[in-house]
Amino acid sequence: MPGRLRGDARSWYAQGNDVKHVILTHGGVTSPQSHADSCAAAADDALAVLNAGGEALGAAIAAVARLEDDPRFNAGTGSNLRLDGRTIEMDAAVMASDGRFGAVASIERVKNPVLVAAKVLETPHLLLAGVGATAFARRLGFDDHDPVTEGAREKHARALAALGGNGDGDFSSDAARFHALTAKRFWNFDAEPLECDTVGAVVRDAHGRFAAAASTGGSTYMLRGRVGDVPLLGAGIYAGPHGAVAATGIGEEIARRFLARTVYDWLADGVAPARAAQRGVAMFPDVLAIGVLVVGRTGQAVASNRTMASAQLVG
């Protein structure tokens, strides 16, 4: 099924082997359809890498870097401010079908965490975190970058109001849960206290290689140093010889279910990508927002239980 598809696709899929490449991108579960233009642009960047002779991994990285640069998404520039109003900690990961994996967690003040995660592939390590990850980025020439945007400040103000019981309704349940279970007892920011999504891409190139990449600014309601699913191998992303998977949603719930590797294992067992994607979403109760991108040897699919900006580029 050569061609393009973009928009709010809670469930769509394609099958067949008569394609040279497949690129799927998403802007995070709950992201509106109006943001699909950026997902399509990210897919175009990935295609440019493939057309220049690059492999699936480079294409997936290029797609996610483009999404990190769009301040409408909670990744890179546009990442969520934590409740102290100052801290932004970001996670990112990349994986290729030959088993290479690199990730950063709780990295600060870089423009494109996914590019730093890609550099971890050149080390003996799988994951670098916190100040070590940021120092690694500086050592490799990544400039100091302040990712705070006016949109992040406005979102922080609304989240803070909800925590104080004066919100507009959008953050109320998350604020109540965080305040009751976490805020008073475990607060670990320097200052006194006053939703979660991820961008991602999966790619199959003309040589049958697969890759996945993802990046996130985390949730507003979280303690400093919290790490979600994205940089955990097999949770937020996974790639192997049978395909690639990228997930988005509440990181702790995704990690508990080892979601990306679970969906991948279904592909390895011969389950069609569309069915694997739908089964992955069905693992979660409806109250939890969840979405997945899946590409395999026999097709590709996107599934989510909420609106999710996404794009497909097949050729």
TrEMBL record:
Which residues are catalytic?
198
According to UniProt, residues marked as the site described as Cleavage are 197-198
Q: Which InterPro entries match?
A: Ntn_hydrolases_N, Peptidase_T2
Which interval of the chain is the signal sequence?
A: none
Organism superkingdom: Bacteria
**Which residues are noted in the entry as substrate-binding?**
226-229, 248-251
Please provide, alphabetically and separated by semicolons, the GO molecular function terms listed in this UniProt record: hydrolase activity
Check the record and name the Gene3D superfamilies matching this protein. Answer: (Glycosyl)asparaginase
Q: What is this protein called?
A: L-asparaginase
- Tell me what organism the protein belongs to: Sorangium cellulosum
Taxonomically, what lineage is the organism?
Bacteria, Pseudomonadati, Myxococcota, Polyangia, Polyangiales
